[in-house]
Design brief:
Helix content of chain A: 40-55%
Number of strands of chain B: 14
Number of strands of chain A: 11
Oligomer: heterodimer
Number of helices of chain B: 8
Strand content of chain A: 15-25%
Largest sheet of chain A: 5 strands, mixed
Number of helices of chain A: 8
Shape of chain B: elongated
Chain lengths: 417, 225
Amino acid sequence: MKLLTKTTLYFVTVSLLVFFAGGAGLYKIMQNLVEHEVNADLYNRIHYLYDNIRQLNTLENVAFIATEPIDIQKLNKPAPSTFRLKDTVLYNRNVKGYMPYRQLSTTVKSGGNYYRIRIYKSLITSNYLIEKIALIITLMLILFLTLAYFLNRHIFGKVWADFFDTLHIMQDFSLSNPRKELFQPSEIIEFNQLNRVLTEMTDKIINDYETVKEFTGNLSHEVQTPLAVIKNKTELLFQESLNEKQYALAGSIYSATNRLSGIVRSLGLIARIDKNQFADITAIDVKVLTIRQLDNFEALMTSRNIVLETHFKGIPKVVMDKDLAEILINNLIKNAVRHNIENGFIHVWLSEEELIIENSGLDPQKPTSELFEQFSRASDRGFMGIGLAIVKKITENYHMDIIYEYQEGVHRITVGF
Amino acid sequence: MKLLIVEDDHEIQESIMAYLAPEGYLCQQAFDFSIASDKIESFDYDCLLIDINLPDGSGLDLIKQAKRLKKPSGIIVITARDAINDRVKALEFGADDYLVKPFNLAELNARIKSLIRRMHFHGSNFITQGDLQIFPDSFQVLVKNKPLELTKKEFEMLLFFVSNAGRVIAKESLAGQLWGDDMDFSYSFDFVYAQIKNLRKKLKEKGAKDYIKTIYGVGYKFESE
C-alpha cells in the first residue's frame, strides 16, 4: 500500500467516524432544545388559560386569543389537575391531512365545574427547522471533508516531495555503476537525517564493494602461482613409484587443487567483468559460436544418451567481447549438460532476438532466481554453481535479459539479446 | 633437442625441469629477462618456453628478439589467465603456441612435443610407440600396420597419452584435454573413463598391447615398455 493511500485511508475512516458521531450528537442536541422550547411555550399558555378560567368561574369571558388549536371540554365528574404532555396528530383542513402536534392537557375547576383544557403546538416548523439545520451541517461537513481530502493530498505531495526524491535516487543506485548521488537538502530535519544516513551507508557499501572487488581480483591473480606449484609438484609426485594409498592421497590433493584453481579463476573473472576489463567489442556470430560449443559437448551428450535438438533462425549477431561471448555460450551449454539426466534432452532455439536453452533435469528445489547467485548449489553433483553467476554477470554487463524457468522437469534459460 | 625455459618462479622452473628430464632434452634455465635475452642471443634452441611476466621485462620482447635474430626456435608462451591481450600479441609476434597458468605438466610436455614435431617434420611426421604408429596431422593410427578407426576425442586422447608415455596422468588433465580446463564434474570423469574403456577395447581388438593402465585415485598411465 502506498504511503498516500494509507494516510488517505486513515484520514477518510476517522473523518467519517467523527462525521457520523458528531452529526448524530448534534441532531439529538437540537431536537432536545427545540422540544424544550415547545414544551415551555405550551406550559406558558396553559398556565395563562388555567388561571383565567379558574378566576373567572366561567368560560364566557376567557380571552381565547389563540393562534394554535385549543380544546376546552366540560367534565361531568371531578378530575385532578395534573399536566400531561403528549405527541399527537390533528386534522388540518387547509392541507387536508394530519399534522404533528404537541399536546398539553390539564383539568381546571371553575365555578363548580371541571374543565379539561387541551392546548396544542404545531411541530411542523420545529421539525422543519431541525431538518434544515441538519442538512446544512451535513453539507458543511461534506464540503469540509472534500476540502480536507484535497488539502491533505496537496500537503502530502509538498511535505514528502524530498522523501520521494531520495527514494528515486536510491532506486537508481547500482553497485556495479555507482555514481556519487547528491541528495538535495530538505527543509525537513528528518529527511535531512535520512539523506545523511543513506549517504554514509552507500559510501560505506561502495567502499566495501570496491575493497572486496580489489581483494578478489588480487587474490585470484596472486593465488594462481602457488596453486600452479602445488599442481605441478603433485604431478611430479605421480611419477614416483607410489603405493596405492599414496596415489590416492596425491590424487585427492591434485583434484582439490584443480577445483580451488577453478573457483578462484571464476571469481577473478567476475571481478574483471566488474572492472570492465573486457572492453574489446566485436560483432559476434552467435550461431557459429553455439554450434562450436555444442560440438564440443556432443560426445559427452552421446555418452549420457542426451538428445540434442537445434532450431536456428536468421543470422544472430551480438556486439560484445569475444572471450565473454565464448564464456557465456560455453557456460550455458555446460550447465544444460551438467544438470541433465540420463536419456534426457537439450533443445536450443536461436534467433536474432534470443537464445533459449531447454534441458531436462531434476527439480532444483529452490527458486530459479537463486540459481544465478554465486556459490548456489543446485545439487550435490559437481562444485559451485558459479558458472551461472558468470552468465548472469556477462548478461548484466551487456544489458541483456535473462530468465530462468523450471517446470515439471524442464529447465529453460532465455537470453534476450 | 635444446630447450630454454624462461620463468621467474623457481619452483615452477624446477617442476618443468624435473618433468621434462626423462625426455632427454638439453634444458637451460633463465630466471629473468636479461639472462634470457643473453642466452637467446648467444645460442640456438629448438624450443623457447617463455613466461610473459618477468620481473625486469616482458617476454613479448624476447619473442621479438628471437624473430629479429631469425632464430629457428619454436616458441611457447606462458601467460596469466587475465592477460588476453598478451596472448594475442604473442601469437602476432610469432609465438607458436601458448599455455595459460596454472597449466599441467602433461599438457606442457604434449605441447612441446607437438611443436618440435611440426618444426622438424613439416607435417609429414608420425610417432611410433611400441606397435602403434600415429599420424597427428591426418588423425590416423596404425596398429601393426593395420588402420585403427578412432573418434576425434579418442584420437586426441591417444595422442596425449603417447606424448606422455610412461607418465601417470591425472584424470583432470585428460578431462581438461578433452574440453578445456574447468570440466571437473563427475560426468566428465565418467566420460573420460568410458572413452578410455572404448580406446582400450579398440586397441585390444586390433591386437595391440594393453598399454593403458588405471592408477587408482589418480588417473591413468600409458605404459611405454
